[in-house]
Amino acid sequence: MIVTKINRQKRKTALIGWLFILPLIIYFIVFQLAPIFMSFGISFTEWNWRNAPIFVGFQNYIQLFSNRILYPNFWKSLGVTIEYMLLSVPLSIVVTLIVSAMLNSKIKGEKFFKSAFFIPSVTAGVAISAIWMFLIDPTYGVVGAMNRAWGTNINLLGRTTTALPLMAIMAVWSGLGYNVLIMLSAMKNINPSLYEACEIDGGGAVRKFFHVTLPGVAPTIFFLCITSTIGSLQAFDQMYLMTGGGPDGSTTTFMLEIYNMIFSYQEVGTASAMSYILFSLILLITLIGQRFLPGSKERREERKVKYGKGH
After folding, report:
1. Which of 79, 42, 35 is nearest to 57 (CA)?
2. Are 60 and 43 within 8 A, CB to CB?
3. What is the model's pTM?
4. 51 belongs to a structural domain
């Protein structure tokens, strides 16, 4: 009798829990899971919104990779995205390491600087783009003031050589707070005795950084490289808002080209195929990260031993 009552109470508690998360489950199925499967099916069709979809098999994928006349921006946008990734990711890691090391040295006002660096990470991309557009405006912003003072005509967003690097710098600035938070947590978990041993051996601040701090945060650096790379491959909002992909396509990233393919060219099937090409690339990077992340081999061996004993 007591066992039956306990089981009934457990079922009631479980039912209440399921009822609480039911709206989230419905949202996930309707607005995320269902569109994933629908878009995958659409990627094998030719569809322009107006007519019924026509099944074409793998033609969209084949045409994207082989027909440079029909889709000249496919490879160009992929190249722009890779260039953006190569500009933003290494710079982000270097700046994150420097800022985190400075904050970890117990400087005055550490809490203030943590908050200041983190504010851009929780600010909407539209607001960040608007602020930067004002700052670099060649007429009214800071750059405009420099132009008036020096008699120059600098337009950073209007030049193919400066537009994309500016986007990369902006991305580093907006994501710095999150990266510093993760890196600083890793630095604070390093055993202080390692620094003491380095000091006994006559090591200064530089030697402690390269011989203790860097090895200690190596897994975190690798993790941030993977997440930053994935984020850079999905860059869209600042390019769309600030340049629209210009000048001369120099800031047209892969995500922006997918957007153009849907809403400008109305090639929904081709855009869906591009989305799954990007998904495959991100999945590949994620799997590589899980495979080669420092310590992942040891964790896999621990799981094998654990579940092996369980059987």
Report:
1. 42
2. yes
3. 0.86
4. no
In a domain, 29, yes or no: no
Residue 126 tokens read as: 């539209």
User: What's the confidence (pLDDT) of residue 292?
Assistant: 73
Q: Look at residue 311 in the predicted model and tell me its pLDDT.
A: 45
Residues 171 and 88: beta-carbon distance below 8 Å: yes
Consecutive H or E run containing 259: helix 254-263
Using a 10 angstrom Cβ sphere, with 0-12 exposed, 13-18 middle and 19 or more buried, the burial of residue 238 is buried
Secondary structure class of 258 (helix, strand, coil):
helix
In a domain, 67, yes or no: no
Tens digits of residue pLDDT in 37-82: 999 999 999 998 888 899 999 999 999 999 888 888 999 999 999 9
Q: Which domain holds residue 89?
A: 73-310
pLDDT (mean) for 183-195: 89
pLDDT confidence of residue 280: 93
| Separation between Cα atoms, residue 124 and residue 174, nearest integer Å | 10
- pLDDT grade, residue 310 (50/70/90)? very low
Q: State the amino acid at position 254 in one-letter form.
A: F
Q: Which residue has the tokens 């393919």?
A: 261
Query: Does the residue 277 lie in any domain?
Result: yes
Whether 255 and 234 have beta carbons less than 8 Å apart is answered as: yes
Closest CA to 263 of 243, 244, 249, 277: 244
Pairing mode of beta strands 54-55, 45-46:
antiparallel
User: In 3D, which of 225, 227, 250 has the Cα closest to residue 239?
Assistant: 250
My answer on whether omega of the bond before 247 falls inside 30° of 0, hence cis, is yes
- Contact predicate 216/194, CB 8 Å: yes
Residues 138/153, Cβ–Cβ less than 8 Å: yes
pLDDT computed for residue 121 by the predictor: 85
What is the Cβ-side half-sphere exposure of residue 56, based on CA atoms within 13 angstroms? Answer: 18
Greatest distance between any 2 Cα atoms in the chain: 90
Q: What is the CATH number of the domain that holds 292?
A: 1.10.3720.10
The domain tally of the chain equals 1
